[in-house]
Amino acid sequence: MADRETSWYDITVAGKRFNIASRRGEFHIRQVERVLNETFEEVSARVQGQPVLNIALLTALNLADELLSLRRSHDGANEELSRRVEGLVTRLQSVLDAQIASPAEPS
Q1: How many structural domains are present in the chain?
Q2: Which of 12, 9, 13 has its CA nearest to residue 55?
Q3: Which of 12, 28, 35, 39 is placed for a possible disulfide with 24 were both Cys, Cβ 3.0 to 4.6 Å?
Q4: Do 14 and 52 meet the contact criterion of CB atoms below 8 Å apart?
Q5: Are 22 and 7 spatial neighbours (Cβ–Cβ below 8 Å)?
Q6: CB–CB of 17/34 below 8 Å?
Q7: Is 106 within the bounds of a domain?
Q8: Amino acid 61: pLDDT
Q9: Is the residue at 1 inside a domain?
Q10: 3-state secondary structure at position 27
């Protein structure tokens, strides 16, 4: 990603057009655009009659909440993986120590 040049993209969110810069590429930008519009429509359906700014802020709050939940989940998975790897390393070290302490008899 760091090697990509910045490109400009036209997106439409909540009926408004924006021109944004990104290094992530067209596919990523279209996914962002889709998620924003889907979430905006979901929020809009729940809070009918609210001004667009309120809907946009509630959309941002929903997406921020989802992001933080995913980060916590990811962190928890990383911690579990680290514990499992440490356990495997300990077991492997025990096997290696046992092999060194009593080498196999030559055949």
Answers
A1: 1
A2: 13
A3: 28
A4: yes
A5: yes
A6: no
A7: no
A8: 96
A9: no
A10: helix
Q: In 10 A of CB 106, how many CB atoms?
A: 4
DSSP code for 24: S
CB under 8 A, 24+ apart: contacts of 40-48: 40/13, 40/14
In a domain, 90, yes or no: yes
Helix (H) / strand (E) element for 22: namely: strand 16-22
Residue 107 inside a domain? The answer is: no
Q: What is the pLDDT of residues 19-72, one digit of tens each?
A: 999 999 999 999 999 999 999 999 999 999 999 999 999 999 999 999 999 998
Q: Which domain holds residue 49?
A: 7-100
Crossing angle for the helix pair 52-101 and 26-46, nearest 10 degrees?
A: 120
